């Protein structure tokens, strides 16, 4: 099994697909009434559906963002700004990673996360003419107030907890689950030593931003998460349908 797709509703799926193709280096194709965009590897695609509009990013919502990992965030930022895309200045966020953020034309948040920490990036890590050539749609981030329940659902699907990361200054912890038999370098899942390894995985993970006891509302623009190998719809992650894909 694998995480195969994130289904989002958009006001203009064709235009949004064009943004991901022309700005973030994904390929795009129309299949029926939906647009599929992605990097073509074992990671998840975005499936863009009609019926959205009016989405606003909000801390009270269950859905949070996607994370794209890539070899050189600085090159990606230069390319985005050359196209007139607003993007935050890259920075090393604690002992989590070197990252920046932007929003797509419909307001969905995108995190760009470098596969190596600031100062650890090897020379020539990416081609300046194609900064997204080795990118991965690495994370689908949901917010959780009950990580034990969410972990039980993930493990019930056959997913493995690969990393736990404390972000005490912001009042939450991060939990990363994936369909993987791989073992992190350090058996202590809280270890910082696992993080650059995690950012180099070629497949998509579910990331939970856990705030103990918090309540989060479903997001109508999130139509579901596609799981390859799932045989029936009906399971859900707190209002987020898990769909056969």
Automatic annotation (TrEMBL):
Highest taxon listed in the record's lineage: Bacteria
Span of domain VOC: 2-115
Coiled-coil spans in chain: none
Record-given protein name: VOC family protein
UniProt source species: Ruegeria marisflavi
């Amino acid at each position: 099994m694998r995480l195969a797709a994130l289904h989002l509703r958009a006001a203009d799926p064709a235009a949004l697909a064009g943004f991901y193709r022309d700005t973030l280096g994904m390929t795009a194709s129309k299949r029926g009434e939906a647009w599929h965009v992605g990097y073509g590897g074992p990671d998840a695609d975005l499936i863009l559906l009609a019926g959205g509009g009016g989405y606003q990013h909000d801390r009270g919502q269950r859905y949070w963002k996607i994370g794209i990992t890539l070899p050189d965030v600085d090159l990606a930022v230069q390319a985005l700004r050359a196209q007139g895309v607003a993007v935050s200045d890259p920075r090393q966020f604690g002992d989590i990673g070197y990252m920046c953020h932007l929003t797509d034309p419909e307001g969905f948040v995108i995190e760009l996360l470098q596969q190596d920490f600031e100062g650890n990036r090897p020379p020539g890590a990416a081609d300046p003419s194609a900064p997204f050539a080795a990118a991965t749609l690495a994370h689908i981030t949901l917010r959780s107030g009950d990580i034990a329940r969410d972990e039980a659902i993930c493990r019930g699907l056959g997913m493995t907890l690969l990393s736990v990361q404390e972000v005490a200054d912001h009042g939450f912890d991060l939990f990363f689950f994936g369909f993987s038999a791989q073992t992190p370098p350090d058996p202590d899942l809280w270890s910082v030593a696992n993080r650059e390894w995690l950012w180099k995985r070629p497949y998509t993970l579910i990331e939970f931003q856990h705030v103990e006891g918090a309540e989060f509302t479903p997001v109508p623009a999130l139509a579901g998460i596609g799981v390859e190998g799932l045989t029936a719809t009906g399971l859900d992650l707190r209002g987020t349908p898990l769909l056969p894909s």
